[in-house]
Design goal:
The chain is α+β, with helices and mostly antiparallel strands. It contains two helices and three strands, in the order ββααβ.
Length: 93
């Protein structure tokens, strides 16, 4: 089974062959935990800034464009404001 964090309006239409083989999680109402997001980043070989969504988010208002911010600070901002997580994020087992 695969798992995908996404926005519900971007999901596969009902009846699509993959819609039963993939578990979809609405990351805005049920975001991954800090630990889960850190593990996803580890598996991707990525850092928080790599999946940080800038447009249509509080990115600038929160000062996240500051290059001095640590990965931990960015991760905390993403958990507190899940709209900052660029999606979809797909995991396969």
């Amino acid at each position: 089974m695969s798992q995908t964090f996404h926005q519900p309006d971007a999901a596969l239409p009902g009846g699509h062959p993959l819609s039963e083989a993939v578990a979809f999680d609405d990351y805005l109402t049920a975001p991954p935990s800090r630990e889960a997001l850190a593990e996803i980043l580890r598996m991707m070989g990525a850092r928080p800034r790599d999946i940080l969504r800038r447009w249509g988010t509080p990115y600038v208002e929160l000062g996240l464009d500051d290059p001095a911010l640590s990965d931990e600070e960015l991760l905390e901002a993403m958990i507190a404001n899940p709209v900052l997580i660029a999606r979809p994020l797909g995991l396969a087992s």
